[in-house]
Amino acid sequence: MSIRVLDPALVSQIAAGEIIERPASIAKELIENSLDAGAGRIEITAEGGGVRKLEVTDDGGGIDREELALALTPHATSKLQDAPGLEHIASFGFRGEALASIAQVARVRLTSRTADADAAWQLEAADGVAAAAPQPAAHPPGTTVSVEELFYAVPARRKFLRREATELGHINETVRRLALAHPAVGFRFVRGSRTAFDAPPGTALERVKDLLGGDFADNVLAVEHRAGPLTITGWVERPVHAGGRADPQYLYINHRWIRDRSLAHAILDAYRDVLFHGRQPAWVLAIDMPPDLVDVNVHPAKHEVRFRDQRAVYSAVRAAVAAALETTRPSAPPQPAPDSASVSAPASAPKPAAAAPAAKKWRGAEPEAANRSFDWTALAAKEKTADYAPAVPKAERDAVAAHAKTSADETPPPGGLGRALGQLGTLYIVAETADGLALVDTHAAHERVLFEQLKAAWDNGGRSAAQTQLVPTEVRLDPVAIERLDEARDLLERLGFELDRISPEAVAVRAVPAVLSDVETPALIRELAEALSNEAEGEQFVDAAADRVLADVACRAAVRSGRKLTVPEMDALLRRMETTPRADQCNHGRPTWIRLTLADLDRFFRRGR
Ligand SMILES: Nc1ncnc2c1ncn2[C@@H]1O[C@H](COP(=O)(O)OP(=O)(O)OP(=O)(O)O)[C@@H](O)[C@H]1O
Ligand SMILES: [Mg+2]
User: Fold this and answer.
1) Closest residue (by CA) to atom 27 of ligand 1?
2) Is 226 a residue whose pLDDT tops 90?
3) Please, which residues have CB within 8 angstroms of residue 367's CB and are 6 or more apart in sequence?
4) Is residue 157's pLDDT more than 90?
5) Number of the ligand closest to the Cα of 31
6) Half-sphere CA count of 374, side-chain side, radius 13 A
7) How many CB atoms lie within 10 A of CB 508?
8) CA-34 nearest atom, ligand 1
9) Is the Cβ atom of 535 under 6 angstroms away from ligand 1?
10) Is the Cβ–Cβ distance between 62 and 3 less than 8 Å?
11) FRET partner for 420 with CA separation of 20 to 30 A, picked from 7, 44, 60, 517?
């Protein structure tokens, strides 16, 4: 499409303002132009913090010789035709302002060649004025925009620029934001003489790995969610992996990076009861929607957008992240890569690709062994493989083989957490899993299981969850506590409690939620009154408040560290965890279990090395 000057009435409808604040703004505008031109590769070079020189080269569609001057003209664009076009913008650019604004504050050299031209042409501009005529130049199909001496004629603006390293940091972040959203486009960023990154075209996850590192990529949950015309995809960090500082948090609308506090809140809200206090999860989330449902013509730098239906977008984002977080439970055993850290916790995501060859090597001689319990057979088989060096005394080998026979007859431990072997002190359950052992924090695990059951009861109106007591239990409490219980009557009924105030200092308990029926009733009611006292007075029990009360009740009711469990009780808890959403972490975001695989133990004891 050819470049045309917009009519002044249309220009007046476009969000105007300062576009070029610093070198990074130039990088953003130039890269967006390259993306709009359909580039497959983009190279960005910065010298002197991007102030001395900033250059972007692409292999996109290019600009015709006759249109080079127009490209530098204010309000001239090939991307917007008329006012209705503003309602559904599908390109980054639409104002026809960026190149002209850059040419106002720096020297610009525009070199371009279209696919069908037999030569490239170059046009220079300074002080907003383009040279008389384009000059022939050497350039493959595509465009290079070279910007030099930013703010050379505006010393006052130059003073506001920061140190070179700071400006480079901003450019780096700008390139990264755009590169993350366009994995199919190769991005190379060269600062000075150093390549900061060179990300080849690839899949979205490969791009995330290239730019945010393997540690991030290995500890994320995939998000994939549809809600009406909205599609939400990307990754959110596993709660137990979240760190203390704001990790990368990238949000895109139709591939455009945006700042949106409300949507950031939607994401954090989904993390509400799985995140340890003070931790910040990382995310890379892309929301795609028909362009007419979002207005990008709000902010001069296009960093903010307005949605036609803000609430729908908010709840879709929240639901998308919540659905991903629900999957954090131990039912699918993570398979650590051969060279990962020696202990894998829920913090380490499954690494199926990397784990497969390792598992094969380890269990090569024993195809069914993967489903087996502690794998003595495989251990014995492994001894015979060539890479097993230390000589093992025959007596020990025989013992191993004998054990292999007996243990093969036992039922294999089901699910991800295996079969309980016993309790370490009163705190941890030790379980034998298909590939090693798991340690479970009893209290943390029980707390999450109870919490999820209480939430289910809450959503269910308590109807199926109440356990009626044959003889009501009378519980004596102080009058303030009785008052509190009385005020929260609706909440309690919805949960499955039936309480009657029988005097200013006593209640009769007729029913309790079935999931709490194990807890001694008077203690439970006291804990409940205590949990309610933590809530602001008069606050409506909207879902967030209800969640807090439920989490508190769950925590109080959960197995205290002093209680010793029987093996069947432990097994029951493990099975529960495997089917409980978000069971990888307790209500406070602490991890509930860790796993040590045979491969980890093997490495630790230096077997087979
Ligand atoms: N790298 C490029 N490849 C091909 N054409 C380009 C390139 N950069 C700019 N152009 C052409 O120059 C025109 C002007 O670019 P400019 O960035 O100033 O405005 P825009 O992208 O149309 O709108 P906006 O001001 O919102 O960015 C574009 O509409 C496009 O036709
Ligand atoms: Mg542009």
Assistant:
1) 93
2) yes
3) none
4) no
5) 1
6) 16
7) 16
8) 1
9) no
10) no
11) 517
Does the pTM of the predicted model rise above 0.70? Answer: yes
φ, ψ for residue 51 (rounded to 5)? -85, -45
Output the DSSP codes for 285-332.
EEEE--GGGEE-TTSTTS---EETTHHHHHHHHHHHHHHHHHT-STTS
Q: Could you identify the residue written with the tokens 């090939």?
A: 78
> 62 CB under 6 A from ligand 1?
yes
Neighbours of ion ligand 2 (CB under 5 A): 33, 93, 98
Q: Which of 14, 19, 33, 97 to mutate to test the pocket of ligand 1 (most atoms within 8 A of CB)?
A: 33
Which carries the bigger pLDDT value, residue 374 or residue 195? 195
Q: How far is the CA of 37 from the centre of ligand 2 (A)?
A: 10
pLDDT digits (tens, 9 = 90+) for 574-597: 988 998 999 999 888 889 999 898
Report how far residue 203's alpha carbon sits from residue 208's, in angstroms, rounded to the nearest whole number.
9
For the chain, what is the radius of gyration of the CA atoms? Answer: 31
Confidence of residue 391 (pLDDT cuts 50, 70, 90): very low
CB 456, CB 515: distance < 8 Å: no
The tokens 């924090």 sit on which residue?
441
**Residue 270 identity (one-letter amino acid):** A
Query: How far apart (Å, rounded) are the C-alpha atoms in residues 533 and 408?
Result: 54
Q: Is 449 helix (H, G, I), strand (E, B) or coil?
A: helix
**Segment 98-113, tens digit of pLDDT:** 999 999 999 999 999 9
| Residue among 14, 30, 36 to mutate when testing ligand 1 (max atoms within 8 A of CB) | 36
In a 13 Å sphere around the CA of 230, the CA atoms on its Cβ side amount to: 25
Q: For 439, phi and psi rounded to 5 degrees? A: -115, 130
Task: Look up tokens 């959403």; give the residue.
Answer: 581
Ligand sitting nearest the alpha carbon of 300: 1
**Ligand 1 touching residue 142 (CB < 6 A):** no
Compute the distance between CA of residue 86 and CA of residue 76 in angstroms, rounded to an integer: 15
Cα separation, 37 vs 56, in Å, equals 13
CA 599 – ligand 2 centroid, Å? 53
CA distances from 395 to 377, 383, 392, 400, 406 (A): 16, 14, 8, 9, 17
Q: Are strands 4-5 and 76-77 parallel, antiparallel or unpaired?
A: antiparallel
316 vs 81, residue with greater confidence = 316
For residue 230, the cross-strand partners are 227
For residue 14, how far is its CA from the centre of ligand 2 (angstroms)? 14
Q: Is 344 in the pocket of ligand 1 (CB under 6 A)?
A: no
Alpha-carbon distance of 41 to 488, in angstroms, equals 61
Distance separating alpha carbons of residues 520 and 511, to the nearest angstrom: 13
Which of the 8 DSSP states describes residue 340? S
Please provide the DSSP assignment of 487-545 as one string: HTHHHHHHHT-EEEEEETTEEEEEEEEGGGTTS-HHHHHHHHHHHHHTSPTT----HHH
Q: Does residue 333 register a pLDDT over 70? A: no
Q: Is the pLDDT of residue 603 over 60?
A: yes
Q: Is the CB of 99 under 6 A from ligand 1?
A: yes
Looking at the predicted structure, is the pLDDT value of residue 335 above 50?
A: no
Q: Which residues does residue 596 pair with via DSSP β-bridges, in sequence order?
A: 437
- In which band, very low, low, confident or very high, does the pLDDT at 399 lie, cut at 50, 70 and 90? very low
Q: CA-to-CA distance for 415 and 307, rounded, in angstroms?
A: 44
